[in-house]
């Protein structure tokens, strides 16, 4: 099973994940994500602390992408405003000529 990076929200069996707490001698009190339907080899298991460390990177990358997209949108908006400011006088000029004829 490929869990991907970050918080596992769904298992391959489509069940939502749940957070549980380990009570093993090796990992006492350590929380983990697990398939909400079945525990087993082909179902989600991931330590919560590791998932959250990965999730921070996932979210940071998404924010970086959104910041780049926003900069692109602002540049497109500025270009559009410039285009409109060039067209408006032309429309006004045409309108005046129409009234004169
Ligand atoms: Zn499952």
From TrEMBL:
- Which residue intervals define the domain GRF-type in the entry? 11-51
Q: Name one Pfam family in it.
A: Zn_ribbon_GRF
Q: Which UniProt keywords apply?
A: Metal-binding, Zinc, Zinc-finger
Its domain of life reads: Eukaryota
Where does the signal peptide begin and end?
none
PROSITE patterns named among the record's database cross-references: ZF_GRF
Q: Does the keyword Hydrolase apply?
A: no
Q: Example GO molecular function term?
A: zinc ion binding
Output the PANTHER family linked to this UniProt entry: ZINC ION-BINDING PROTEIN
What protein does this entry describe?
A: GRF-type domain-containing protein
């Amino acid at each position: 099973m490929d869990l991907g990076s970050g918080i596992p929200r769904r298992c391959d069996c489509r069940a939502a994940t749940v957070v549980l707490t380990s009570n093993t001698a090796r990992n006492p009190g350590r929380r983990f994500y697990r398939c909400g339907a079945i525990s087993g080899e082909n179902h989600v298991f991931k330590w919560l602390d590791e998932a959250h460390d990965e999730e921070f990177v996932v979210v940071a990358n998404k924010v970086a992408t959104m910041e780049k997209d926003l900069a692109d949108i602002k540049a497109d908006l500025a270009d559009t405003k410039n285009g409109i400011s060039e067209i408006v006088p032309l429309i006004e000029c045409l309108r005046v000529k129409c009234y004169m004829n």
